[in-house]
Amino acid sequence: MSRKKKIEHKIIKEDPIYKSTIINMIINNILLHGKRNTAQNILYEALNNIQQSSNLDPLETINKAIKNTTPIVELKSRRIGGATYQVPIEIKPKRGLSLAIKLIVKSARKRPGKNMITKLENELIDAYNNTGNSVKRKEELHKIADANKAFSNIRF
């Protein structure tokens, strides 16, 4: 019998405009210093700009961008003897979703420019088109996991 407690996951609320939990998760990742209003304004403006400039549905754009950046495997460090191995582990869908959102927001922050709205808008469009830094980061992660496939028999 396991001594660990059962993990109780947080229930994520829907955002008020699009009625989507994914958008609320993105807002939570953009959020800095507790300024939720600012984070909401950034995301909603970026979605409005996407809708006006490319005539795409904002929810469809976000869903496809997240689908394109969701990693399938993750690397975890495992120390055996004196050596540390990068062990590839499959990711559950909920973890993959949160990693994809973090990759998109982090890549948007690293983009050159002053305005976070345009940076996020461009990153979402690039992820939708299967290009951009977040998708590149996902592919690098998969390459490293493929190279370390020999250590996949090491268990946690």
TrEMBL record:
InterPro entries for this protein = Ribosomal_uS7, Ribosomal_uS7_bac/org-type, Ribosomal_uS7_CS, Ribosomal_uS7_dom, Ribosomal_uS7_dom_sf
Location of this chain's protein in the cell: Plastid, Chloroplast
From the record, what ranges are coiled-coil? none
Named from the GO MF annotations, one term is: structural constituent of ribosome
A GO cellular component annotation in the UniProt record:
chloroplast
Cited CDD domains: uS7_Bacteria
GO BP annotations of the record are:
translation
Reply yes or no: does the keyword Iron apply.
no
Keyword vocabulary terms for this entry: Chloroplast, Plastid, Ribonucleoprotein, Ribosomal protein, RNA-binding, rRNA-binding
The keyword rRNA-binding belongs to this UniProt entry's keyword annotation: yes
Where the protein is mainly located, per its record?
plastid
The record's listing under Pfam families reads: Ribosomal_S7
Q: Where is the Small ribosomal subunit protein uS7 domain?
A: 3-149
Its annotated function is as follows: One of the primary rRNA binding proteins, it binds directly to 16S rRNA where it nucleates assembly of the head domain of the 30S subunit.
PANTHER family associated with the record: RIBOSOMAL PROTEIN S7
- Describe the protein's quaternary organization and the partners it interacts with: Part of the 30S ribosomal subunit.
Query: What family does the entry list?
Result: Belongs to the universal ribosomal protein uS7 family.
- Which protein is depicted? Small ribosomal subunit protein uS7c
Q: What is the lineage of its organism?
A: Eukaryota, Discoba, Euglenozoa, Euglenida, Spirocuta
